[in-house]
């Protein structure tokens, strides 16, 4: 069976709850969309606001506080919010990649053997939340390698979470860390391979259909590992032909709506996973906008999603939400974006009206576009 580029787009939007908002809570919503990029503390909140009916940010505060949802370094060496049940298999699947930071000059030359000696004691120390300075001090007392250097390497792969520290989005700019609620046994290549099968299945549930390069990109694993995981799952997977004739893999009975399914406009969070989950990001991000949306240092700016594709950027200003479209948009689309912007202003009002303003420097180099103030 062949699937068109537009059908791929709609499949992603359906699984990411972007065709229509769903009447589920924060925990179930996160489980459905699998993994939310969380480099900026506000982004998981805005991601769920885009996807859930009457989303109450207090629900997400509570889910973090109670450990139902967790924030940790996982895929692509970046922070993600995931369901607690997903963390352990994702963490174990990522071990061969996460450990590539050792030994590195920045890690003080810390070896895996030295790290393994340190981690059990460190996890005991992390029975309660600890700051970077506290952890560096502990490592300095238990290792010949400077604590700051060793901590840079260890925190990439040790099984731990970011601990909520308060503030408008549960996590502030100064992180604290706590040992994971469910710790793995001994790591092994076999355990990592089995866990990667679980990760691949969950990825396809949230982002499929997808290719081997897409899977490898999402998880930051070697394509050979992704291919092996797919081969192990092949009897359970549906195989489709993509627009280029190459094989795409999917879980059975997953939603694949028709190409003409309406896709309402959305104001997407920074680093929204939907934009980053593929080797070929043209499913969501037109090629001509890729370098505009993703800046040279890796910042992925908050975008306008129009008919399922990135069409511009947005940012808060003292007067409301400013939107810049990179191509002409019909009046009815601007009207729908204005309604979304009005709702977003209300959503941000009690938390952080000026969210993301620290990234305003990127707006000085945007291409020409239609810029409008949508809500105030």
Describe this structure in words.
With 376 residues, this protein is of the alpha+beta class. Among the domains are: 155 residues, no CATH class; 82 residues, no CATH class. It is built from 14 helices and 13 strands. It has a five-stranded antiparallel beta sheet, with helices on one face. A three-stranded antiparallel beta sheet has the order 1-3-2. A three-stranded antiparallel beta sheet has the order 4-6-5. Helix 5 packs across helix 9, helix 9 packs across helix 11 and helix 10 packs across helix 11. The longest helix is centred in the middle third of the chain and has 19 residues. The mean pLDDT is 94.
Structural key phrases:
five-stranded antiparallel sheet; three-stranded antiparallel sheet; 14 helices; alpha+beta; 15% strand; 376 residues; 13 strands
Write a brief caption for the model:
This protein is of the alpha+beta class and 376 residues long. The chain has helices at 5-15, 26-33, 43-49, 57-66, 84-98, 112-125, 132-142, 147-154, 189-207, 212-219, 223-233, 273-276, 290-293, 331-349, and strands spanning 36-37, 69-73, 79-83, 130-131, 160-162, 176-179, 238-241, 247-250, 266-267, 303-306, 309-317, 320-325, 370-375.
